[in-house]
Amino acid sequence: MGDVGAAAGSRDRDVAGRARNARPRDGLGRPLPYGAQGVERQPEGVVRTPRETVAEAQTLLDAGKPFHAHEVFEDAWKSGPESERTLWRGLAQLAVGLTHAARGNTTGGARLLRRGAGAIEEWAAEPGDARPYGMDLAGLAGWARELAGRVERGAGPVDAGAEAPRLGS
């Protein structure tokens, strides 16, 4: 990503001049004050194979970092074939939904979990592989809908690592 910084009153920018928030972030992607110790951020724009994407995202989910897993899925969504965009976008929405549920955002968490479940179900309904890259899409959609219901019923902030889904085999 390169050095990112900002003079007083200006926006943070990377070495290419693009706006980039340089504040450190916690494990759930929440911005921390400048100078605070945060977790390492995921590099943006990394092109991975689909199986590398699934493995990296699973590692991050297991570590309780669904925000960072979302960034991995977003890279696949943006760099992958058009025919898979709905799949990767839906997986990114599941990760963001878990992020919001872990932050205590009941409404946003439940909404994104359901939206992600719908997207992966939509993709799975098309002719093709029901278990792309070893992922259990039906199981993931069920996990997301069940967690969305629990969050709405007042489960409070959830433990992102303990609630992390298994993407598949």
Keywords:
6 helices, disordered N terminus, 169 residues
Give an overview of the whole structure.
With 169 residues, this protein is an all-alpha fold. The protein has helices at residues 50-62, 66-79, 85-103, 106-125, 137-152, 160-163. α1 (50-62) runs antiparallel to α2 (66-79) and α2 (66-79) runs antiparallel to α3. The longest helix is centred in the last third of the chain and has 20 residues, at 106-125.
Q: Which range best describes the helical content: under 10%, 10-25%, 25-40%, 40-55%, 55-70% or over 70%? A: 40-55%
Shape summary = globular
Following the backbone from N to C, one meets helices and strands in this order, namely HHHHHH
Overall radius of gyration: 17 Å
- Which structural class matches the secondary elements? mainly alpha
